[in-house]
Amino acid sequence: MRGSSSWLLIAAINVLLPVGILLFAKGFFPYKPFLPGLAVFGEEDGPASAPFDKVVFMVVDALRSDFVYGEKSGFKFTQSLISKGAAIPYTAYATSPTVTMPRVKAITTGSIPGFLDVILNLAESDTTSTLVHQDTWLAQIKANGGKLVMYGDDTWLKLFPGTFERSDGTSSFFVSDFTEVDNNVTRHIDDELMRNDWNAMVMHYLGLDHIGHKSGPQSAFMIPKQVEMDGIVERIYTAIEKQPHLHSTLFILAGDHGMNDAGNHGGSGEGETSPALVFMSPKLEKVVALLDNPPKAPTEPINGEFGFYSRIEQSDLAPTITSLLGLPIPKNNLGVMIQELVTMWDVEERADVMMRNARQLCGIVAATYPQFEHLAANLQSAWKTKPCNEMDSEAEELACLWGQARGTYKVWPAEETLEFLTKLCRKYQEKLSGVASNYDLRLMTAGVVVMLTASILAIAKLIPLLGDSTLAELLFPVIAAAYGVMMFASSYVEEEHHFWYWVATGWFMVLFLKEWRSGNSGFGIILIMALLRIVRRWNQTGQKFAGAPDISRSYFSEHTTLLWVLIIITYTEVFMGMSRNCFRRIGSEVAWVFSFTTLLAAFSFKLSFAAYDARELVPSWLMSAAEVLEEVPLVNQARAVFGMIMAGMVYTYICEISSSIASEIDRQHAATALGDLSEVFLLTQTRFTNTPLIFLFRLISGRLSSLANLTASEITVTTLILQHVSFFAFGGANAISSVDLSNAYNGVAGYNVIVVGFLTLVSNWIGPIFWASVAPAQLARRGGGDQPWRRHVIAMTAFYAVVGVAVMAACTALRTHLFIWTVFSPKYLYLMAWCLGFHFVGGLGWGAFMWGINRSI
């Protein structure tokens, strides 16, 4: 009875974790309010002339600026257009989070999306993120009688349901596909260019982004893909030149975001926030001729590594497109009309164009500052006696500037008015973009209180359970406290892996001294530390050195034979374990056949995936086997592996563990067999360059098992440390760009949010799940009834509760910090994943299952 009440309290504490996390998230990640309805021209705006009547908007996902403008670029035709003045190039700054859905929102509405859109970007089936009721340049085209077509990333179809007359969407998450996702777009181009029944054609190509995710920006596939995309540009531009119904078509080539040196995106690195943007049309040659410094190509970056040509805000696209099409600027736009393109109008009209932009931005200022309209009326002429920048408050300054704009419009010379209105719009953009998010501090505080309550209860529950290791009792709170304090420093959050690497080194040194003082050699600890040194070098992670040379990407790219020898050793070692432990009641021959078949299927899938994903990393002596396997679809191969794993687990549990006639030694082997089968699943979900890490972790686990002096509490601390070390060793980081989607579709033919979400969680938490599986077996060997497992669960719960309080407090205290959306918000998302994903699914779910099996033996 006492044990039952204890477990009920532990369960109650764990219920508080998601409650606190979700309450805080609701207040910290609110949807930003939008002005309802569509913008229309007011009486003061008058009719707007339109330099263009159609737009072709070509998005190449992850099109980093140097991919188009660099000397090694495959966009030679695009560069030739820039050289002759038929194209105007920019680097369009994309604010974090640099993932597709928020960036499409920024491009179409001109606003700055909320950070919660990162989650919606992963939830493909989500419908709450639709923009169908918000003002965008697509909505303006449709509202004014235009028709739109779209081909490519189906994010557009989810954001704009019912908007397109014709469409053909493809999922953006099949990241192994470099060709079909793009061919599916290209096959529609010629037919659409012959038609004259559309005003906007949107194309969103995905192949280049997929190459980046799989192989990085230096991949051998990258230049050919750039050449392919440049060929599409040439095909469309040539049609605009030759076909009369396209002569007034504006052609825009844009990246939604860039990518970092590892090929990922989502964060705020320079490569991730620097996509290319090119406006193309034969009409632009006259515009470029009027510029003082017309752009030439190719060129060197002006600012930083990726700052080619002029830098603009990505949100500037929305007012520019609508203005060039003669349409009202979307209501929620924070962008400013691009200045070089203002010269498309006659001198007399240019100030009118910028005044429309200023009025639209003024509407958002009035909605943001409730006192603005009153101040604007009182300060209408204040600029004549006092500079606006000397006003007492920000709202007064903005009101004063608006009064100056209205007072000088049509009075000052056109060029002078244009210059002032441009500065005014930039000022409004700067102030509105910097306005703090609409935090709900009540919900945030409630979340902190709930999590703090969980922390206090967990610690109070943990203290009476301690007692078998003074060493663990001392260091566990020190680790938790130090980790919590670290959450308040952006650099430590970005480079968190160093903390765990240092802690691991220090902890195992302490364990070595303990072994040595007990009269043991401590050789096992020394071997573990040597293996961890290799593990640390496997994947460069963090922010400062992401993409730097490491074992996984750099060393194995030059030593492919060694890579595959290690992979074969890993599968062989797991096979040897399975053949000893599986199907013992049936016979060793069946165990051998089943183990061999399962591991051969798993290895074949890994080889096929590698040959499809990164053919250059498959040595010639394996390529013939890979070519034979190409006949079998990867989806079917993965399903076969998963099916054998599931069949083995079901049989082992029902017929060997739960069987009343099975001997104790048979059940012991069966419990180990379940662990081996789970590791086959983890191997299947692991990037093939990371596969040998499983072998290293098996060696470390074996050494830990041999340490007779290791107490249950020390096992808990050890596995906690190794869970985090392994997370970063596999390439994880506190950045959205580190999320690995390469194995999220293993065995999946179409998008399923639950299955893909589960596979994504497993793929990114391979190491932590491995150690969550090891801990129950290690604890069961120490004996002591349920006490070790109860202590382990409450210790892990206490750790995540304390860390949750620290991260929440940091996000609350630093909510106006410069890095709140680039560092601290991603860290909170990772806290959610660690607590709601790994802790409940891997730690409490799978861990409890494995404990129950090991404890029953």
TrEMBL record:
Pathway terms, separated by semicolons: Glycolipid biosynthesis; glycosylphosphatidylinositol-anchor biosynthesis
Annotated localization: Endoplasmic reticulum membrane
Keyword terms, alphabetized: Endoplasmic reticulum, Glycoprotein, GPI-anchor biosynthesis, Membrane, Transferase, Transmembrane, Transmembrane helix
Protein name (Swiss-Prot/TrEMBL): GPI ethanolamine phosphate transferase 2
UniProt KW Endoplasmic reticulum keyword: yes
Gene3D superfamilies: Alkaline Phosphatase, subunit A
Family per similarity comment: Belongs to the PIGG/PIGN/PIGO family. PIGG subfamily.
